[in-house]
Design brief:
Strand content: 15-25%
Distance between the termini: 36 Å
CATH superfamily of the largest domain: ANL, N-terminal domain
CATH architecture of the largest domain: 3-Layer(aba) Sandwich
Strand order of the largest sheet: 9-10-8-7-5-6-11-12-21
Structural class: alpha/beta
Radius of gyration: 24 Å
Pfam family, one: AMP-binding
Protein name: AMP-dependent synthetase/ligase domain-containing protein
GO molecular function: CoA-ligase activity
Shape: globular
Number of strands: 29
CATH class of the largest domain: Alpha Beta
Helix content: 25-40%
CATH topology of the largest domain: Rossmann fold
Number of helices: 17
Largest sheet: 9 strands, mixed
Length: 630
């Protein structure tokens, strides 16, 4: 239950005399596989009395935990544990012989003391190999990172430059993208990484991999792809692996050891590497557990990307710690999604708002039996109250929403069990997770505000990130000296401790759960010889329940401003320009507005809130025509 300080809006889930969110020592791997939510475990013992009733029974080693949605291949709880240890052994004492960084390498002046070990980069959609490899890296004590498979070579080159991965795991198509990205790196970094010859690039065959379909999978010999020597990833699963025991961290070492690096877009346009420690990962899951209604024998659809904090925290980690059966889905299409939810008898669905719109409005839903679904969690972007109401009226299913970021894991979650209770929370993101502090401070004075007043949302907790990777200026801007993370979102609390998000200070666009930086798109547009100046903001598409980027363009050729074929050709040339540089979720689906000038301050800063008032010729280059909502 939340405690409220009357002098300021600062909610904490529990009092400070007990640790409501215990954490494990050692690796996050050991914690997640310790079945932490059973009665009598150290986690249970350290949990406050009011939360101890939420427990699980033991997980049988043969219980299916992850299942391939296309082939039906499965990983049992026991096999996943054994195979992850085998991968860990191969990474540290086998094929690659990588070693975690020593504890002595912690330096408070670098990444706020985070110990970043050699990094393994997964460049995969949701699939069984992703699961085993991710847990293998966590077990090894090395550092894991993961990237969206649709990133372009320049976007990947930025990630390679910051994280310098010691190994890559990708697909055959991904190798070509990495090779193009590799050419963009500085020569000394190319020499250091040596992906072409070192044998540190591994492939997953998404269409033909037999992993999970057989007791022992055969790994093909090394081969050459575009001049690079690559191996099938199953070379990391030898038939007779060397014994391996995960490292043991003592004291606060688990709070410094970098377990995972997520990639979060910033207002500057370049992705920032969000460092989460082993302690942060375990604590985030405990928060998810106590804020949820998940229980025994859950069946989940693994659609949210595992490389994204939403899918990682709510599905990938939950599958192991809860013993849930997760059916993976690598790519969304409505019929396949509904078929999968029906056939696996899903009990809980996790998705971004566009799928909530599907459930509310699409006639496709009428042909499927979703009676097994007890609830849904929507995340990654705001979801309108009307859609939640429509889904309940149509299907009798509660959709609960929460709030979180890569930098914080989860932060809040609606926790209602009935529609009558949920109605009282509609429009909010619910109360804070156990062990998470949230404070609202004035955007003008920087001081805490009172209940009902708006201000910037600050979050503090053991599950928060320790630093941005090798980015001291961004870290100093986002994290206060006393460990609060400044979200850049504007919100308020009600008297019950429910958080409402009302605005953004950050100049970010939320496209189906992914962050898009207007500054990044503006830089790309201005790099075109056709463009004199550009400003980017967002428009909202009701039917898709998402924002899309819209670009206001000042062309060199003023004839374009008159419209007609010349304006059409101009806009489509810019469409091709952006598509060649950026991932699909960054494309200008909100259309181009051709204007005489982009509004700016005397200091030259784009006045984004004035863009909507700019008069010009609008050209839609995609079929969708969003409704402006700025």
């Amino acid at each position: 239950m939340a405690s409220l300080e009357t002098s300021a809006v600062r909610f904490e889930s529990l009092s400070s005399d007990i640790s409501p969110v215990p954490h494990s020592s050692n690796t996050a791997f050991e914690f997640l596989f310790s079945q932490p939510f059973r009665k009598g475990t150290p986690t249970w013992e350290a949990t406050s009395k009011e939360l101890q009733s939420h427990t699980l029974g033991p997980i049988h080693p043969e219980k299916p935990i992850f299942r391939d949605g296309k082939t039906g291949a499965t990983l049992s709880y026991g096999r996943l544990y054994r195979d992850a240890l085998t991968v860990a052994s191969s990474l540290t004492d086998g094929h690659l012989a990588l070693q975690p960084a020593p504890a002595s390498s912690s330096n408070p002046r670098v990444n706020r003391g985070a110990i970043v070990s050699p990094t393994i980069l997964l460049h995969l959609p949701n699939c069984l190999p992703f699961v085993t490899l991710a847990y293998g890296v966590l077990a090894s004590g090395l550092t894991l990172t993961a990237a969206n498979p649709v990133l372009t070579p320049p976007e990947l080159a930025h990630i390679l430059t910051l994280s310098e991965p010691a190994a890559l795991v990708t697909t055959a198509a991904g190798v070509a993208t990495f090779q193009a990205a590799f050419k963009l790196l500085a020569p000394d970094l190319q020499a250091k990484l040596s992906y072409a010859t070192r044998g540190n690039v591994f492939l997953v065959n998404l269409d033909g991999d037999d992993y999970g379909a057989s007791a022992a999978s055969l790994a093909p010999l090394e081969r050459n792809v575009g001049g690079w020597t690559v191996h099938d990833w199953k070379v990391l699963l030898p038939a007779t692996p060397k014994p391996f025991s995960p490292p043991r961290y003592t004291g606060s070492e688990d709070a410094l050891r970098a377990a995972m690096i997520f990639w979060s877009s910033g207002t500057s346009g370049k992705s920032k590497g969000v460092i989460l420690t082993h302690r942060a990962i375990g604590s985030a899951l405990i928060g998810v557990w106590h804020a949820s209604t998940l229980g025994e024998d859950e069946r989940l659809v693994g659609l949210p990307p595992f490389y994204h904090i939403f899918g990682w925290a709510n599905v990938l980690m939950a599958g192991v710690a809860l013993g849930a059966t997760v059916t993976t889905m690598g790519k969304f299409d409505p019929v396949s999604y509904l078929t999968m939810a029906q056939e696996c008898r899903a009990t809980h669905l996790h998705f971004s708002p566009p799928i909530a719109v599907l459930l509310a409005k699409s006639p496709l839903v009428n042909g499927f039996d979703l009676s097994s679904v007890r609830g849904c969690t929507s995340g990654g972007a705001p979801l309108g109250t009307s859609i939640i109401e429509e889904v309940y009226r149509r299907l009798g299913i509660l959709i609960k929403i929460g709030y979180g970021l890569s930098e914080t894991g989860g932060a809040t979650q609606q926790q209602s069990m009935t529609w009558d209770d949920l109605k009282k929370q509609l429009g909010s993101c619910g109360p804070a997770y156990p062990g998470t502090e949230i404070m609202i401070r004035s955007t003008e004075t920087g001081k805490p505000v009172t209940v009902g007043e708006e201000g910037e949302i600050l979050i503090r907790g053991v599950s928060c990130a320790i630093s941005y990777l090798n980015n001291p200026s961004a870290t100093a801007e986002a994290f206060t000296p006393d460990m609060w993370f400044c979200t850049g979102d504007v919100g308020k609390f009600d008297t019950q401790g429910n958080l409402y998000i009302t605005d953004r200070l950050k100049e970010l666009i939320k496209v189906k759960g992914f962050q898009v930086s207007p500054a990044e798109l503006e830089d790309s547009l201005c790099a075109s010889p056709l463009v004199q100046d550009a400003g980017v903001t967002s428009v909202y598409h009701d039917d898709h329940a998402t924002e899309y980027p819209r670009a206001y363009i000042m062309p060199f050729d003023k004839e374009v401003l008159k419209g007609g074929k010349k304006a059409h050709d101009f806009a489509h040339a810019l469409r091709q320009h952006i598509e060649g540089k950026h991932s699909p979720y960054k494309w200008i689906r909100g259309g181009f507005v051709l204007v005489e000038a982009v509004p700016k301050s005397p200091a030259g800063k784009i006045l984004r809130r004035m863009l909507k008032d700019c008069k010009g010729h609008e050209v839609q280059v995609y079929e969708e025509k969003p409704r402006a909502k700025l």
